[in-house]
Amino acid sequence: xxxxxxxxxxxxxxxxxxxxVFRDIIVIYVKASAFAVASFIVLMxxxxxxxxxxxxxxxxxxxxxxxxxxxxxxxxIRGQIAPxxxxxxxxxxxxxxxxxxxxxxICLLNLPWRTVVRILTVHGPGAGMVGGVTIxxxxxxxxxxxxxxxxxxxLGFILIFATxxxxxxxxxxxxxxxxxxxxxxWPQVRGFPPEIAANVRRMGLKPKLIxxxxxxxxxxxxxxxxxxxxxxxxxxxxxxxGIDAKVYWSVGSISxxxxxxxxxxxxxxxxxxxxxxxxxxxxxxxVERGDLKQELHIVSADEYMQLYRGFNMMIEGLRSEIxxxxxxxxxxxxxxxxxxxxxxxxxxxxxxxxxxxxxxxYDKKTDELYSRYAIGLERGDIRFPASAGIAGHxxxxxxxxxxxxxxxxxxxxxxxxxxxxxxxxxxxxxxxxTKIGEQIGVTQVINKRDGAFNNRDLxxxxxxxxxxxxxxxxxxxxxxxxxxxxxxxxxxKSASDSIITVESDGTIIKINLAGQxxxxxxxxxxxxxxxxxxxxxxxxxxxxxxxxxxxxxxDNFTDxxxxxxxxxxxxxxxxxxxxxxxxxxxxxxxxxxEDLSDEKRLKSSMSRYLSKEVVDQVMSGGLDxxxxxxxxxxxxxxxxRSFSSIAEALSATAIVxxxxxxxxxxxxxxxxxQGVLDKFIGDAVMAIYGTPFPGPKDxxxxxxxxxxxxxxxxxxxxxxxxxxxxxxxxGVGINSGRxxxxxxxxxxxxEYTVIGDAVNLASxxxxxxxxxxxEILISKATLQRIEPKLLVREVDLITVKGKDLPxxxxxxxxxxxxKRILRHQxxxxxxxGGIELYRSxxxxxxxxxxxxxxxxxxxxxxxxxxxxxxxxxMAAPPPDNWxxxxxxxxx
Length: 891
Fold this sequence. Notes:
By secondary structure, the chain is of the alpha+beta class.
């Protein structure tokens, strides 16, 4: 089976069987020679003038001399078919040379007449010469006594009968053989190369017919006459009386008249055939030059009548095709749908010789067919159910229909005729199909003026209907493109970013309203060069546009600055993309400019309170993220201990410098851990974690900020000690829970903050750091939200002012903090055990543990607090309903 690749690419096809042209032609040559020799022997034997011994001796003798002229024939044949051998040798080697194919075609087209020329000029004379030599040899050496008459008859037979017979036989055989080879070679050549027309020797049909008729009609007469005369001569030799010159004259004149009659008949027949052929060729030549107004008039009742009729039908079809092409060309410049349909259907009515032509389209909303265009219809819109009448049947079935008698067809809807006062005789109706096979209507022609519609009319209307389908689909596409254009125009107008499209040389093609506002242009800058709209310092933008157009790759510039023609600096994000046409060729560039000026101002303001990461989140999420909502947060409060005492020893300037240095370090730690600076409250800092976007590590980030704040404070105190300044002490309290977050305040002053019990508890916990001598205290809610690898210890179970529910507080133990000794001597485990004994009312045992811890860590305030409580409860035990909760009333 031939593969698709082999069908497309001839070089990949399997090698075809290569014929042995030389062998095949020699076989034909031998067959033709055998035919001529057989005819020669039969005539010699049946003539009666030659003895069997003469015939046998002559054939044996001439047979020994045949190779002489056959060798010449073979050499000539080999030379004549040289181009064929060259072509097929290339095919056998897998080469396909178009030039060699053209030469092979020329050789095959010329080979039949060259064969005739070879036989008449080489083979025939050669055979005659060999025959004459053979007669001499037979008479001289074998004493066969060939008479002069016999010799002349033999030589005449060879030259006048055998040679033409051989030529005819070989001509027709070679013609059929060449036809087979030409069918094999022609596919390798495109079209009809001019070299073929220039190098082919044409043998007309008329000479062929004359030669054939002459051979058939005159040759028998010639040989019959010659035979009679020879017989008469022999009779005269034998002394028969009554044979005189009148007999010879009578035979000769009858033969001559018969010969001339045959010649005249041949000429007349050739003339008749040539006349018809030449007439067809003349008309075809005019058609080839583009004149399709040609017609062959039928003047005989034979095969030429069929040929002329077929030719006329072909020309009529060509005229229809040309007219259809002309209509297609005419409507290609029309964009109005009704005008397009009108021109198509008018041409259809004219070509089909119909009284009316119409287009009915389908209305999906009403399930009706309505007349979009109709020739010869004075009334306006005609509507009828989509299944009614001939048109409805064609629309529903999707098949063309030809009706010769409309009123005899039960499907015909007579109502339309009644409404239009028209009489429909015959109808040709075709469905209109889209490219995907959807039926959208029908075309219909009515009342052919001359008879009924036929298959050719069906083909023509089908062609016009396909054009109608294309017109309707193009109109639909045009409407869709127009809608998309309007849609895109509206998008450009409403886009907040500046959109500018430029050609490859920088000329502006399109700019939206935002772009004009960015450039502060009241006049549309379309047509100007983009370089003219910006200051010289922004020439890099034009270079970037040129680079994108040259490379075809987009480019981006984030948070960059461009300067407009009026020297306004604009911060913007710029994206440059290449513009492509339908053939994917770059025709320009599209610039999208996002103005960041307002955003940068807002971002700068927000950066004073939010970390860079949080600011970026807010800016990407929109200001809606700052609206009021109830969410999970972690709140951190830090406060400088004994700030009043420190401030009393410093001037106002020194206080401000100290606070600025302190706040800078503390706020950096807040921002470093995705916190939000809520506010400064005197010397206190309030920070929030989890706003405006909550996360799973908000509580952990708050604790990390606290640890980092103490690390920064240690470094600050180390520097203050070198400068002879007193150290700064601080306490941090952290709580986690739900709170209300948002912009809170009056229209004149808004503040982004949090409010709720979770905030108040964080503030109370921070205030307890001084009471418990702790650096960082956190609530149980915060502890539950951090990783267990952080080292903490439970400090107390308390209630604070304003809350009735007890709250467990924990101290975060820094690795490098002042209480690190508790970690290495088992103090934390003993402290936890002491609390458990304390809440079990085993105050003496608890006191023993706390006393041991206090000796190891004498500065541990919680141990001292529990020792004092144990002593009090041992002296005056608490009531039976004591729950172990310590109540703090101070803020």
